[in-house]
Amino acid sequence: MDSAALVAEVHKDSAAERVASDPGTAVLGLSLRDFRNYGTLQLGLNGLPVVLTGPNGAGKTNILEALSFLSPGRGLRRARLSELGRHGGGPRWAVHARVATAVGTISVGTGLAEPAGDEDAGERRIVRINGEPAASANVLSEYLDVVWLTPQMDRLFVEGVSTRRRFMDRLVYGLDGGHARQVAAYERAMRERNRLLKAGGADRVWLDALESQMAEHGVAVAAARRDGLARIEAAMALASGPFPAARLSAQGGIEAWLAEMPALAAEERFRRLLAERRGYDREAGAAAEGPHRSDMAVWHAGKGQAAEQCSTGEQKALLIAITLANARLVRGRRQMAPLMLLDEVSAHLDARRRDALYDELLALGGQVWLTGTDEALFAGLSGRAEFFGIAEGAVAPSAVH
Ligand SMILES: Nc1ncnc2c1ncn2[C@@H]1O[C@H](COP(=O)(O)OP(=O)(O)OP(=O)(O)O)[C@@H](O)[C@H]1O
Ligand SMILES: [Mg+2]
User: Fold this and answer.
1) Within this chain, do residues 172 and 285 fall inside the same structural domain, yes or no?
2) pLDDT tens per residue, range 29-53
3) Mean pLDDT over each residue of the chain, to the nearest integer
4) What percent of the chain has a predicted confidence (pLDDT) above 90?
5) Which end of the chain is more exposed for a tag (fewer CB within 10 A), N or C?
6) How far apart are CA 296 and CA 30, in angstroms?
7) Residues within 6 Å of ligand 1 by CB
8) Is residue 265 part of a domain?
9) Residues with CB under 5 A from ligand 2 (ion)
10) Structural domain for 400, as ranges
11) Residue 300 and residue 233: Cα distance in Å, rounded?
12) Dist CA 119 CA 123 (whole Å)
């Protein structure tokens, strides 16, 4: 069954099961097998926010990582798929979840595929939706969005460009249903052109065709970034509360052209540039210009300062503000708040910001998963969330809440 038909069917079958009063994506059941430090784990959930507390190394982030596989890609640690298998248990692992989504409650299963027999085939993740194999993990984004914030992302503003570019594209994925496909199509054409140039690049007709594809998809990528970041910036400007507004911009050659000319003219210019630079790109082994080089610039609007010059706490606050604004926009597009995974976010905030964050998360309505070592940090959510304690890979409901 194609995915559109599946969506229609799920919609029909599970309309009655939909949680009418809850506008948010929520995991209602989670089971893990041989995933990281979990042999087997089964959790039943009621759709409220989830607080996971426990000592360092207990397995909190591993649960969020498992949930991040409910979206396309390599998860929140960008690990190799075979690293996720429990040590001593082999590389195979499985995550299964029952998820309330905008099109009803679905069952998602994912894990490392059996090796195809061909050593070079690489690792592949299989995804099943309601028991049916999905063509690729990308199908997941037809059902739900997952957004996350992890301590590693604290380094976003000081790390290399590629981390920021990936972050920017993930933001845009949730706002523009075609963006992931455009990014993938651009990269495919670019890789093929690199290969062809390296091999001598004699096939002019094929090179022309690949460069036309790069121009078409590349300009679409740049345009979606400009549009997505502008919308997030506008959403942040409207927000009140203690989190700062930011100015955001996609920085790249094509993005800059789009400020001055229509998309078709930018496509033509990019196509001509690629054709002119074949010799140069062959030497370099890669295309010198294109949206695969772009960066995301972030300024603290109130201070008029670049994010990389802000304090650690200010940078964290900027990231939270961007994530919250993005989640609000995703909810607008999907009529359903995304699933949110916030790893150790509370520990970095003062009490006022923490309470404001909890209020905002509850107002958003999606299920948010929060982690921390200290349960006291989540007192503001008492009675409004499910609390679990984790110790050495065993998860149990906390008594006090
Ligand atoms: N493939 C694996 N097999 C078994 N254990 C693993 C695997 N990968 C990671 N671990 C272990 O899982 C444990 C829990 O890791 P996790 O990152 O979830 O901890 P945490 O509760 O988030 O801790 P912290 O508070 O320090 O962030 C760690 O001890 C880690 O070494
Ligand atoms: Mg952790």
Assistant:
1) yes
2) 999 999 999 999 999 999 999 999 9
3) 91
4) 82
5) N
6) 35
7) 36-37, 54, 56-62, 85-87, 373
8) yes
9) 60-61
10) 1-144+336-401
11) 11
12) 9
**How many structural domains compose the chain?**
2
Sheet holding 26-35, edge to edge: 38-44, 26-35, 94-101, 104-112, 125-129, 132-133
Q: Please write the tens of the pLDDT for every residue from 352-397.
A: 999 999 999 999 988 999 999 999 999 999 999 999 999 988 999 9
- The CB density around residue 43, as the number of other CB atoms within 10 Å, is 18
Whether residues 252 and 331 fall in one domain: yes
| CATH classification at residue 54 | 3.40.50.300
Model pLDDT, residue 16:
32
- Residue 133: its pLDDT value, please? 97
Burial (Cβ within 10 Å: 0-12, 13-18, ≥19) of residue 103: buried
* Same domain, yes or no: 340 and 296: no
Same-domain status, 214 and 110: no
Residue nearest atom 7 of ligand 1, based on CA coordinates: 36
User: Probe ligand 1: pick from 32, 36, 65, max atoms within 8 Å of CB?
Assistant: 36
- The DSSP output letter for 291 is G
